[in-house]
Design goal:
Two copies of one chain form a homodimer.
Chain A lengths: L7 H13 L2 H8 L3 H15 L18 H28 L3 E8 L1 H6 L1 H8 L5 E8 L2 H9 L5 E5 L9 E16 L10 E2 L8 E3 L13 H5 L2 E2 L3 H10 L3 E5 L10 E8 L3 E9 L6 H14 L5 H4 L2
Parallel strand pairs in A: 1-2, 1-3, 5-9, 6-7, 6-8
Antiparallel strand pairs in A: 3-10, 4-8, 4-9, 4-10
Helix pairs in contact in A: 1-2, 1-3, 1-4, 2-3
The structure holds a DNA duplex.
DNA sequence: ATCTATTGATAAGGATTCCTTATGGCACTA
DNA sequence: TAGTGCCATAAGGAATCCTTATCAATAGAT
């Protein structure tokens, strides 16, 4: 005979009848009528081709298990417990309350936007584990492609258009000039690239944003390249020169430095969420993506213009 | 939301689709049509409120799991395995191929009938564990009452009628006289109790069967009481005297001794299966009981008369 | 490019299962 | 001997499952 296939509800009914010693109380607990429980138990007995409960001709009016039923009871309970564990686990998982979320982001967003976003996001999901990596855009994209990360935050260079990657733009990050507060530029509100030619310009990791723009000549003018951001800031504070930075990379609350938008050319990099095309996100990643989307839509451009 | 309740078949479908990488092959394996599998999976996805399989716009035409599905797969497999373990175990149990059977019997049946019966019974149930006890009828009954034993083989004294015990008679065991082959009785085919009065009668554990019969005076005539059966036989072989024994207690294949039925009074003890009333037997015990019944019905009386 | 074969999704109907209300039978109680 | 509490049974409706038939999309072949 083929192995029977138990239904979880059926097993629950059995356990309840056994433990509450009665069909009526079990029916109550199961939110069913008593005949439903009767049929359920009978079906189970047929599957096992054995009787589970003694016939009630005993003096005690309680329904009692047969030896076979006693043998079955603990196993049924274990099976139910196992099922419920899995069900609960999967429910938590699909409500992204648990699981593992791997995230990579470019440093500027990581410093400026993510701290607040992530702390809000994880506020009500204490069981969710998050692995975070920060790196430049290409590295972030690479991690996404290699599935080392579930979701990435980066800008999308043109050479990546071909890849199996979906890009959802979120932030617009405008390039500007950074100088010390006592620099003549500190007082102006916008700058033309040609105004920079007389200045001592320090290149940095973000300088290649100037490539393919009319301001490209600045790159060859430049004498310095400082790729480490902390060193760069220190040099700028020292008055060694000026540099160009995207707004998000400009350190927040820095009192010694000023950020002046570059208006000609206006260079904007679009930063957004990067994920593998044709691959669904885990519920947690999905939740984070929509959370970011929801919590940034309204101030997408304001962030750039304000302050 | 209440926890979802998975169906085992549904989980199987999921695992098959995942492992065979396709709905059609899974449907084949499940002996269902492809739409059935589609619906089954969709139902599961609704329960989990998540998608399990990537949409098939990928270049590879194989259906692939989502990360969530990958996380679910091993758990689903474990749950199915657990279920099947229990189902298999219970199936074996209900076919009495496994489990534990505790049996007590009076020694005569234990020696004369059970060896053959049990060896036949266990021939095709190698996983069944049997615990066997032999003792006199009262002790057997006590073990049954105390549920130290699932089933007993004994005769039912009158003082036990009241108890919660069911008795199914199987064998009729006739009392007879045992003497050495060179004794004058050895040649006769039946005896009257009065013929024993001139003999040296040895009492034994079974002698109380004579109580409440017209042959009761024999008990007070008797000079010896030997309760150990082996010693008793040795004494008889030595020609020390004669005794009364039920036929089943008379050692099989003993060439020195003879058994002569006592015809007046004809004393018969009924031996049968003893079990607790209102308590079902385990499948193994049930099987043994009906096995014994089936394999002894036809020669119930023949055993007593023959040889 | 068109055709074909294969894949999964969808719709509609029938079959099955599940659960309900109503009722029956049995044992214990008063 | 009627009453009460328990489970079993019967019959009908509701929900579920599974089928056939069809669609839509893709990949490979001609």
């Amino acid at each position: 005979m083929a192995l029977p296939e138990f239904k979880i509800a059926q097993l629950r009914h059995f356990v309840w009848v056994a433990e509450l010693k009665g069909f009526h109380t079990a029916a109550e607990k199961a939110c069913r009528t008593q005949p439903a429980i009767s049929l359920s138990i009978r079906d189970l007995e047929n599957k096992l081709s054995t009787v589970l409960f003694e016939k009630r001709n005993a003096k005690t009016s309680n329904t009692e298990l047969t030896p076979f039923g006693q043998y079955f009871l603990p196993k049924a309970k274990e099976l139910i417990a196992h099922h419920d564990n899995v069900a609960q686990d999967m429910a938590l998982m699909s409500e992204h309350k648990t699981g593992h979320l791997r995230l990579a982001s470019v440093p500027s967003i990581a410093c400026r936007m993510l701290p607040e976003l992530l702390s809000k996001f994880i506020a009500d999901v204490p069981e969710l584990h998050i692995s975070f990596y920060d790196d430049n855009s290409e590295a972030v994209l690479r991690k996404v492609e290699k599935q080392q990360v579930d979701i990435g935050i980066a800008s999308l260079p043109h050479e990546h258009e071909h890849a199996d990657i979906t890009f959802t733009p979120i932030w617009e990050d405008q390039l500007g000039v950074v100088c010390r507060e006592d620099h003549p530029f500190a007082e102006v509100t916008e700058l033309h690239w040609k105004e920079l030619r007389k200045q001592r310009l320090i290149r940095n990791g973000t300088s290649r944003l100037l490539e393919d723009t009319e301001a490209e000549p600045l790159l060859s003018d430049s004498q310095f390249l400082i790729s480490n951001m902390l060193s760069l800031i220190a040099m700028l504070e020292e008055g060694l020169g000026i540099t160009t930075l995207p707004w998000f990379a400009f350190p927040k609350n820095n009192s010694k430095l000023r950020f002046i938008p570059l208006t000609t050319p206006k260079i904007v990099r679009h930063i957004g969420i990067v994920q593998l095309r044709n691959k669904s996100l885990s519920p947690a990643a999905e939740a984070l993506a929509s959370f970011i989307l929801k919590n940034t839509n309204q101030d997408k451009t304001k962030d750039v213009e304000s302050e």
